[in-house]
Specification:
Helices cover about 70% and strands about 5% of the residues. The protein is mostly helical.
């Protein structure tokens, strides 16, 4: 079962450049540093097999494993590891390679062959950039995060890096998200080194760092119910689950999977999940603590220092300065409330911002995004009405009013909640803007529910000629026919009759 967060939409105006950069770095590392690994490995194996070195080295390695890798020793002894698997283990065991080079039992020919193989293996990215718990270093603790076992390992990790990376980048900001990524990766490799029984196995992959982002997502939202895409074989659906509950599922899954001998570092995932959760949870607590210490109403000295660089704000007018600070604080509070999924509080803040700046379409857009989650509510329909009315005098509101009308139709299937005058005003606005296609469904609604309106015939007549310019002659003919039959005594009805006769 896979759970993918679907709470935060992809924002094209604020692209997750840090996430994209991390993905690009991983792809470049794989393309530039790892593409030659397979060729080098085959070359080393060919020399190793052609000289039957496994026959010579197996008993020596078994004795070495008994002292340093006891679990592996018993697997070899019980015949649970094939010769091919054992050969790969021997080739990438740095400690055993060093032991052979200093051993008295190794002949000169054997040592020469082994030296050639070692030089080839040392050129592989696995040997250079993997993290070996037996030889810890800060360099490989960082470099291993950009190495991957194969293309499928890379693609899988990059998918989850994108899904959780852009979420954390939106929620935390780029600096904190980057810090969470690397700290989680370091915590993951540390926990893996501490818990593994075999400290000679090289570790590669960004999974630990990405697990930290997954844990951080849960740390940010805590007990709040988050929208997830659930994927079980061929079953897909959306569910709302507490973020902390999903974290517990992930942790238990890693613990259960850890018993598998499939080469996956589940304990690194576990360590990353825990580290990411703790880091983001602490950052959130510190952020809240810092916010509480800030005064709600700044003094005039504070106003001057905060707005000195803003050319639109007059320092000689304290009232304007205070309004500017209040606006800035309300905007920050509204955004934080949205991040924390406290939508009712966010609505209150955006309503206050609208009261301060009644012509700012950005505030209306933010409030609309919150209200449209409940299209059945009175607050939603009242907001749509307000948007349409405001669009008559504020051109910046027109795109949002168009979206609101279309959404209302999509959600409710009709325009019943809106007054007839509001719909008529919207039709007039669209006709003035020469966008008749936007009001097709509104026109149909008015014909059915407002046929006695005195303004409807003129709107229909203008709509008919406007839609003709869009190439829709059939609709024009239908509208003119309706006008001639049902509004024949009106000016619009008579004009419609003349147009029909001319085109007969």
């Amino acid at each position: 079962m896979i759970l993918i967060p679907a709470e935060n939409g992809f924002n094209k105006t604020n692209l997750p450049w840090l996430t994209f950069t991390l993905i690009l770095l991983n792809i470049l590392a794989f393309s530039l540093l790892q593409t030659n690994d397979h060729k080098l490995y085959r070359e080393a194996v060919q020399i190793y097999d052609s000289n039957n070195l496994l026959v010579l080295e197996k008993p020596i390695f078994q004795n070495h494993a008994e002292r340093h890798r006891p679990e592996l020793y018993y697997q070899i002894k019980d015949g649970l590891i094939s010769d091919q698997e054992l050969r790969d283990i021997i080739l990438f065991d740095k400690t055993f390679t060093q032991y052979l080079s200093n051993s008295q039992v190794v002949t000169s020919d054997w040592k020469s062959q082994r030296s050639e193989i070692t030089e080839i293996i040392q050129d592989t990215s696995t040997y250079q950039y993997s993290y070996y718990p037996s030889e810890p270093s800060w360099f490989t603790a960082l470099s291993h995060m950009f190495m991957h076992g194969d293309i499928f390992h890379l693609l899988g990790n990059m998918m989850f890096l994108f899904l959780f990376g852009y979420n954390l980048e939106v929620l935390l900001g780029r600096g904190k998200m980057l810090l969470a990524y690397f700290l989680s990766g370091l915590a993951a490799v540390t926990y893996f080194a501490y818990t593994t029984d075999d400290k000679f196995i090289p570790l590669v992959g960004a999974s630990g760092a990405i697990s930290g982002l997954m844990g951080g997502f849960a740390g940010f939202y805590g007990l709040k119910r988050i929208r997830y895409l659930i994927w079980i074989f061929v079953y897909f659906n959306y569910v709302r689950l507490p973020a902390i509950l999903v974290l517990i599922y992930w942790l238990l899954n890693e613990l259960i999977q850890a018993s598998n001998d499939d080469g996956v570092a589940y304990m690194a995932h576990f360590g990353g999940l825990v580290a990411g959760f703790i880091f983001v949870f602490v950052m959130k607590l510190l952020s809240k603590s810092s916010a509480k210490k800030k005064t709600v109403t700044p003094d005039l000295a504070g106003v001057s220092s905060n707005i000195a660089s803003n050319s639109d704000v007059s320092l000689s007018n304290p009232k304007i300065g205070l309004e500017f600070i209040a606006h800035s604080e309300l905007t920050q509070k509204a955004r934080m409330a949205v991040k924390e999924l406290d939508f009712d509080l966010a609505k209150d803040y955006y309503q206050q911002l609208i009261n301060i700046e009644p012509n700012n379409s950005v505030h209306y857009q933010a409030l609309y995004n919150l209200e449209k989650s409940n299209p059945q509510s009175r607050a939603y329909t009242e907001l749509v009405k307000t948007l349409v009315e405001n669009a008559k005098t504020n051109k910046s509101m027109e795109p949002l009013a168009d979206t609101a009308i279309q959404d209302l139709k999509a959600h409710l299937g009709n325009f019943n909640p809106l007054p007839i005058n509001t719909l008529i005003n919207y039709c007039q606005s669209c006709l003035t803007r020469k966008k008749p296609k936007l009001i097709r469904s509104v026109i149909n609604h008015l014909v059915k529910h407002a046929s006695d309106s005195e303004e409807l015939p003129n709107i229909l007549l203008h709509f008919a000629f406007a839609i003709e310019k869009e190439g829709d002659w059939d609709t024009k003919h239908k509208v003119l026919t309706y006008l001639s039959k049902h509004c024949g005594s009106s000016f619009a009805g008579q004009e419609a009759q003349r147009e029909l006769e001319l085109n007969h």
